Amino acid sequence: MRILVVEDQKDLNDIIVRKLKNEHYSVDACYDGDDALAYIRCADYDGIIMDIMLPGTTGIGVLKQMRASGNSTPVLLLTALGTVEDRVAGLDAGADDYLVKPFDFDELMARVRAIVRRGGERASSVMESGDLVLDSASRHVERAGREIKLTAKEFDILEYLMQNQGRVLSRDKLSNHIWNYDYDGASNVIDVYVYHLRRKVDDGFDEKKIITVKGAGYMVK
Question: Whole-angstrom Cα distance, residue 132 to residue 147?
């Protein structure tokens, strides 16, 4: 899953990014509202963590522009402004959650998990496709009751495919979602990962879950 962190305090921004990466998220980061709008226009995010008091366009301003354009990506606002009026203003602008500084990082991670689930319209972290079961919270995968051991990126790709069951995802869409803007890997990296993923998930089964759609991409049917 891919998260955008918008926080002008560099030390805090760096810590949040590190915590998210430890939780296996792909993360982009910026330090002002104008850059945030540029990132949001260029990529699809599963969630956004954003300070309110930003240089340039404020967090509330970014949020209002997002919602006005139809972008429903879940947003968690971070701010030192903790009055009831401030919280109401943030939520009325379209925020999904609100956390007042200083905060506990374990609570922040729990709230991120909650808004990401909410954004995917899933009450549970568990996704199923027949006998294939994936739990985003525990990062556990099994098929027909047998546990499947995946690398971090293999898991991320399968998770994204299962979030979009029945939809064909292009190689570019998969790559853009799984890696952040700093990634500079080979153009066939998705094909390599899907090859190994398919061997782990589909070998030994008559029904193949990971389907190649020639010239278009991949899907979980």
Answer: 10
What is the per-residue burial (b if ≥16 Cβ within 10 Å, else e) of 181-192? eeeeeeeebbee
Q: What is the DSSP letter of 221?
A: -
Nearest to 148 by CA among 204, 206, 219: 204
Cross-sheet strand order for the sheet of 26-30: 26-30, 2-6, 47-51, 75-79, 97-100
Angle at 171 between CA 167 and CA 173, to 5 degrees: 65
Q: Considering Cα of 156, then 24, then 150, then 140, what sign does the dihedral take?
A: negative
**Residue 216 to residue 168: CA distance in whole angstroms:** 7
pLDDT for 126 equals 85
Question: Does pTM top 0.85 for this prediction?
Answer: no
